[in-house]
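Whether sequence alone determines local backbone shape is best considered at the level of individual chains. The sequence in question and its structure tokens are set out directly beneath this paragraph.

===
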Amino acid sequence: MNDLFARHRQVLPDWLALYYDEPLEITHGEGRHVWDANGNRYLDFFGGILTTMTAHALPEVTKAVSEQAGRIIHSSTLYLNRPMVELAERIAQLSGIPDARVFFTTSGTEANDTALLLATTYRRTNTVLAMRNSYHGRSFSAVGITGNKGWSPTSLSPLQTLYVHGGVRTRGPFAELDDREFIAACVDDLRDLLGHTRPPAALIAEPIQGVGGFTSPPDGLYAAFRKVLQEQGILWIADEVQTGWGRTGEHFWGWQAHGQSGPPDILTFAKGIGNGSSIGGVVARAEIMNCLDSNSISTFGGTQITMAAGLANLSYLLEHDLQGNARRVGGLLIERLRAAAAQLPGVREVRGRGLMIGVELVKPGTDEADPKSASAILEAAREGGLLIGKGGGHNTSALRIAPPLSLTVAEAEEGAAILEQALRSAY
């Protein structure tokens, strides 16, 4: 393992983040568990950054990929592609967007890039609204709209980005207001911001901010925003890369908690749909998707082998009601963690929905972020046989918990017990 780490350091970038003081090589997985190169077994509560959505080594997906690989793996979008059409049909219907068109990419970053291209072309402006504490990907344009300085290595951008209040409920200038007043204040802020700039192309927002520590506004905020945006024809892009496919339990898409003013104009997705295969994509109304006046393709977006994986994975998710399981088991897990956190001075908040749970940490007796303890808890959880993530934005640190949606009650209890012990070791 040390040899592999040394080789990694020799040929890969210094900025390529690795978890743990002794980085982990995961060699295989099954269900909700993975094994490392030393044979240690771990309960996986992070799922490859919310990507292993159903289960590790899901037989239905393995079979679909194997059978497709035996026929043809790839041909590009220059040729008709039955699995791509079939998956696009299902996603268009599930999206809630009328007259929907679907374009496949290989990642969430690329999906958000495409959404920005569509919105700025359709609206003929390069000004974009984004949320503070947001994260939308690693590319040049996606970094340019990311409202989280820890993941934004440059201020250079092809876009002019203006940041809006509202993505974080319990911090910031409106934190002390009740939900109704909070939404009203954020809407007033949006209106004021729009009074100082030319009409933007779109607002892009994660219904629950992922890298930012699983923070979210009160339900209905983006519906209230949309009423204001529609007055000027500004589009709403819902970044569902982490919230999509039923992970929040209560809804299939995160935007549905804010759906009083209708669905988004553009929806982006990735991660969970592929269960580890590289699938991303954009859904938009036909008039928006078709606004480009030059040719475009995606060499690897929609390739047959990933589409086969996505079809099998989505079918399994729907047939086994994993959204309902996320709601039931996730609800139990959140309550279990809240009960444990009530006795720990370093836990500021346990938040989330379904199987998308954040545990925000502070230095005891203060409201200051505690990234050092977050790293220590990550290490202690691993020692106990549990893998979790971490995140946070401006002056925050949070643990991120996002197991596969097939998590059982027994596994939730087991993971909660390990995490509670890890928290107690730090506080």
